[in-house]
Amino acid sequence: MSNEVFKALADPHRRRILQLLKKRSMSVTDIQKHFAFTGATLSHHLDVLKRADLVTTERRGQFIHYALNTSVIEEVLSAFYSLFSC
Amino acid sequence: MSNEVFKALADPHRRRILQLLKKRSMSVTDIQKHFAFTGATLSHHLDVLKRADLVTTERRGQFIHYALNTSVIEEVLSAFYSLFSC
DNA sequence: CAGATATTTAGACAGATTTCTAAATGCTAC
DNA sequence: GTAGCATTTAGAAATCTGTCTAAATATCTG
Predict the structure, then answer these.
(1) Which residue has the higher pLDDT, A46 or A77?
(2) Which of A19, A27, B21, B57 could form a Cys-Cys staple with A63, CB 3.0–4.6 A?
C-alpha cells in the first residue's frame, strides 16, 4: 500500500468523506452539504482520495459521483493489519 | 481513536519504526541504526508516536527503551477497520 | 447560443511538518 | 566531580498542507 493512502487518511475531513461514501456513492454537491469549507477545498480533498485510489468517480450528466473503491479497501485493511500484528 | 494516531502513521519513517518495534522493544540508539537522519529528528518522530500513544517508554539505566503500546494497537485496528467496513 | 448549475484549476497565504545544528539534560563510571 | 555516552530540547530553514477567492471548464435547459 502506498504512502499516499496513509497521507490521505491523515486528515479528519477526508476520513469523514470516506464514511459518508461508505453508505452510498454521492455527488460532490451532496458531499458538500456536510462540510463548511468551500467547493474548491472539497475538490482538493477528493483529489487526494482519488490519487490514493481510495475512491472512484463516474460522471452522471451534470454531476460527478464519488464512491468508495471497494477493491482497494481490502488491500488497505490487510496492509494496515500487517503493520501492527505481531 | 484520535486524529493523532492517523497523523503519526502518515510518515513512512514512523511506520518503519513501528515495524521495528513489532519485533522487539529497542533503545533509541538501536532504532537510530536503521535511519540516516539525526538523533534529534529521531527523537521528534518518537515523540509523535508517544503522543499518539502508539509506543511506551521505559528507562533502563542510560538507555530509554521504546515498545509498541499493544493495548492501544487493538483499538487502532478496530477503529481503522470500522472506517472502511460496510 | 445563452444562462444556470456542477466541478476543477490556478494562484496565494497561513500554519504545520520534517529536518538540521547546537546546546541542554540525565545517567554511568572512573 | 569530570568525562563520556544517550537522549531531548530549542531554534531555524525548507517544504508541505489546508484553505480561500477568482477564474476556467463541462453539462443541461430553454
Answers:
(1) A46
(2) A27
Amino acid A71: pLDDT? 85
For A22, residues 6+ apart whose C-beta sits below 8 A from its C-beta are A68, B84, B85, B86
Identify the residue among B48, B84, B85 best suited for mutation to test binding to A, counting A beta carbons within 10 A and taking the highest: B84
* Residues B24-69 pLDDT 10s: 999 999 999 999 999 999 999 999 999 999 999 999 999 999 999 9
Contacts of B3 in chain A (CB under 8 A): 12
Sheet holding A55-60, edge to edge: A26-27, A63-68, A55-60
Residues B43 and B29: beta-carbon distance below 8 Å: no
The amino acid that residue A35 corresponds to is: F
Three cell numbers, residue A31:
458531499
